[in-house]
Amino acid sequence: MSFSFRVLKKSKDTSARLGEIQTPHGIIQTPVFMPVGTVGTVKATTPRDLKELGAQIILGNTYHLYLRPGHELIKKLGGLHRFVGWDGPMLTDSGGYQVFSLGREDRQIPKETPHPKERGLFRKTKLAKISDEGVTFQSHIDGSTHFLSPEKSIEIQEALGADIIMAFDDCTAYPTTHDQTFISLNRTLDWERRSLACKKREDQSLFAIVQGGFFEDLRKKSVEEILAMEKEKFFGGIALGGLSVGEPIEKMYEMASFTANLLPIDRPRYLMGVGMPADLVTCIDLGMDMFDCVIPTRNARNGMLFTKRGPIQIKQVQYAEDPRPVEEGCTCYTCCNFSRAYLRHLHMAKEILSSILSTIHNLHYYLNLLGEIRLSIQENQFLDFKKHFFELQKEEETPC
């Protein structure tokens, strides 16, 4: 089965849409939330858990899998699907965001900058040095030096064998000036051209990434040039990068809305690294189709459990004798079998089971939320669903 996308239904009063992505490892119904499996595992879960929870697609991380255990070993052992025991669709990112998050302070000035006196200059970061050719960085594991370029990123992702792979990009920090963002965007566009040119495997779909910070003219330029690159080769989808990087939430919504309106309707739209449940509902309303974030798994390990009335912190003393499940009516394994009191006990005792049970609940919450959203779009009731969702988030929970 080759890669394809089609819109099945559009919301009458919003930009929300119901879609279907076909991949070599199965069909994905959109809007979709994708659990993050950074190093080949969604933390504190098994592939069996993920199947039972209804996960349609999971992520792997190019940067981390390249450093350990290595893409060549994974290829030798049959590719990422076989290596991690997951037979459904998979997506790998390019490694660009991990370079961004290595603690860099500034960037190299690329050769195409309109300011000739600045050409060839570079600024160092803690663990990475960025140039037009790529990124030289030190491993966070052992300090060894590595070089990641668009060509190397695609080589790694083709060896891993995910269904969806990402173009290599230069993620812009917040806040950043227009000139700095312009420089970064030009580098990203060059890297995307090179990513598209060197892609060889036809059973993988390459997604482009729109950058441009929080400047509408640069986001528009990014979209236009991405589409202009497509001659003999095409991007299977288009992602929005450089959002949810510390900006006020309303700025993120504004730029997601602006950019979504520029994108072609025949491609899946992937909002990278977002986010909280309210972010998903809002951005689906704006026309986004795909989401990933570590929030449900990371926050589970830290004791934050999501419910329809907002998150609870299970370590709070008020739950020490609470016999109720995390959420009344929830059908996940955790809620069907364990009390808040027990979950608090496990968390305070730092038991491994705390992370497992909390992660199961949070992923069930997220995946079930997206399922309810898809149903509401199908039944032309998305606006009612959205209104009810935010009303519940404001309600106070009845004490035990």
Write up what this structure looks like:
The chain is an alpha/beta fold. The protein has two domains: 4-293, TIM Barrel (Alpha-Beta Barrel); 302-394, no CATH class. It contains 15 helices and 16 strands. The longest helix is centred in the last third of the chain and has 27 residues, at 352-378. It starts with a strand and ends in a 6-residue tail after the last helix. The model is unreliable at 103-125 (pLDDT under 50).
What are the salient characteristics of this protein?
single chain, 400 residues, alpha/beta, TIM Barrel, 3-stranded antiparallel beta sheet, 15 helices, 39% helix, 16% strand, globular
Through-space gap between termini: 52 Å
The CATH architecture of the largest domain would be Alpha-Beta Barrel
- Radius of gyration, taken over Cα atoms and rounded to an integer in Å: 21 Å
CATH T-level fold name of the largest domain: TIM Barrel
Tell me the strand order in the biggest sheet.
Answer: 4-14-13-12-11-10-6-5
The total tally of domains equals 2
Query: Which sheet architecture does the biggest sheet show?
Result: 8 strands, parallel
- Text of the CATH class of the largest domain: Alpha Beta
Low-confidence sequence ranges: 103-125
Q: Helices, strands, pairings?
A:
Elements: E1 4-10, E2 17-23, E3 26-30, E4 32-34, H1 47-53, E5 58-60, H2 62-67, H3 71-76, H4 80-84, E6 90-92, H5 96-100, E7 128-130, E8 135-138, E9 145-148, H6 150-160, E10 164-166, H7 178-198, E11 205-210, H8 216-229, E12 237-240, H9 249-260, E13 269-271, H10 277-285, E14 290-292, H11 295-301, E15 304-305, E16 312-313, H12 333-337, H13 340-348, H14 352-378, H15 382-394
Helix pairs in contact: 6-7, 7-8, 10-15, 11-14, 13-14, 14-15
